[in-house]
Structure formats: structure tokens, C-alpha cells
Amino acid sequence: MPSLNAAVQWNNVTFSVKGKTIIQNLTGTFYEGKITTLVGPSGAGKSTLFKLCNGLHSADTGDILIAGKEIASYPPVELRRMVGFALQDATMIDGTVYENLAMPLTLQGKDLSEEKAQELLQLVGLPITISNQSTNDLSGGQRQKLSIARTLVNRPSILLLDEITSSLDRVSQQDIEALIVRINKNYGTTIVWITHNLQQARTIGDYTWVLINGQLIESGESSLLDNPENHEVRLFLKGDHS
Ligand SMILES: Nc1ncnc2c1ncn2[C@@H]1O[C@H](COP(=O)(O)OP(=O)(O)OP(=O)(O)O)[C@@H](O)[C@H]1O
Predict the structure, then answer these.
(1) pTM over 0.90
(2) Strands of 18-72, DSSP E
(3) pLDDT at site 3
(4) Each residue of 34-56: pLDDT tens digit?
(5) Which domains does the chain show, CATH number per domain?
(6) I need a surface site. Which of 72, 92, 200, 232 has the fewest CB within 10 A?
(7) What's the start-to-end Cα distance of the chain, in Å?
(8) Residues 6+ apart with CB under 8 A from 132
(9) Most informative mutation of 16, 20, 241 for ligand 1 (most atoms within 8 A of CB)
(10) ipTM here
(11) Is the CB of 44 under 6 A from ligand 1?
(12) Nearest alpha-carbon partner for 5 in 29, 28, 26
């Protein structure tokens, strides 16, 4: 394997809520500039990993290193800029496309130029003419594209995607998949993508993690999904686990 840098390094990370262990002694790497897909049964702890990764949760024990530095050493604002987060429901403020796009900068007391807004809309495949339209008029696929464009305003080096295509039709899904691959290739952005769609995990991922009961049961190149070594992973892939 060519030598790869760690964008996020997990060393023996454990995290509990109200006495219940949610992430157990997890060690692994999200590689810089690569797409890692994250699969596992419902409740396995996938979204919790993301919250640990952008500072919404703190590990009880173990270390999380981002670009080689302990996560707690980053000021929260810098961490949120470095680590972008897009969710399934693509929450919008009540306002125009432009206002939503500008929001990450507005919150920092900065402006988003018209040129930059247009560049981002074009990048994600939205017509620049919708800039002044209300987000209420957008389709599900358009909202998700806008949500992704909004995370790119801060030029994150790591992008966490939590089931961003699960409520979309097949065509919009493929559109978003192509967009994420484009972002990864054009900007070298490290992508981590939680998905319940195993076909998507296999085709989009360079690497895949299988998380079951808070444990990283198997990880490696995404082709592992064709022939996993672990019995529990085989059961999960057959649909016997969720
Ligand atoms: N704030 C909380 N308080 C109590 N339990 C929590 C909390 N957050 C998460 N959990 C529990 O932690 C476990 C992991 O949840 P998480 O949302 O990370 O799983 P997931 O793999 O992302 O699931 P899904 O695929 O259904 O989204 C679940 O059992 C959940 O109920």
C-alpha cells in the first residue's frame, strides 16, 4: 500500500453516555484525501463517531488526532472550520439560497461574495439563478446540494456525511455521489460517509469501516465488502444484523 497520511487517527477511543458504552476501544485511521465509507447496523455508533470527530462529544479514554494533533488542542471554531458536517435532513434557515449558503460566514461576522456564492452553486450543480429563491421551493436533491455547498464555504479538509442520500430518489442519489467524488478529487478533501446503502459504500469508498456494537469489527479497502473475513460482518451484510 502506498504510504498514506492520517487525517483522523483514533487510538483506543472509548465513549459512554449514562453508563452505557457506545464506542469501545476503537483504533483506526481515516486516510487523508481518501473516501472512507462507514457501515453498520442501526445504533452501532456511527453518528457518535462523527460527533467525537467534530468536538460535539469528548472521548472518555483514548486519543483522537486530527492532522496529527490532539483534537482538544484545536479551538472549537477552527475545528468546525476544518471538519465539515452534512446530515440527512439538510436543515435550512428560513430564507434564500444565498442566505443559507452565507450562514457559516455570517456566524463569523463575515460576508460571502456574490462571485464565491455563484462558484459554489456551480460546483454543486445548482443554477446560479436560484440564489435569491426561498429554500422552501427547493427539491430534496437541491436542498442536499445546497447543504453540501454550505459546508464547503469554510473549505474543510475533512467532510463528514451522515446518510445524505437516504431520502433521495435514485437519480438525485447518483448526482450527489458524483458530486462528492468530484469534491474529493478536485480539492483532495478527506471524506467519511455513513451509509446504509452497501452498494454505495462499496462503489464510492476507497476504504470501508464496519462498526457493530460500538466496535470497529473490520476495516480495509472497500472490496472487503465482497468477501469479509469476520462472521458478524457476513451476517450484517446478509441483513441478519440490523
Ligand atoms: N445522547 C444520548 N443519550 C443516550 N444514548 C445515546 C445518545 N446518543 C446516542 N445514544 C445511543 O448510542 C448508540 C449509538 O447511536 P448512534 O446514533 O451513534 O448509532 P448509529 O450507528 O449512527 O445508528 P443509525 O444508523 O440508526 O443512525 C445507540 O444505542 C443510541 O441509542
Answers:
(1) yes
(2) 20-31, 35-39, 61-66, 69-70
(3) 80
(4) 999 999 999 999 999 999 999 99
(5) 6-237 (3.40.50.300)
(6) 72
(7) 33
(8) 96, 97, 98
(9) 20
(10) 0.91
(11) yes
(12) 29
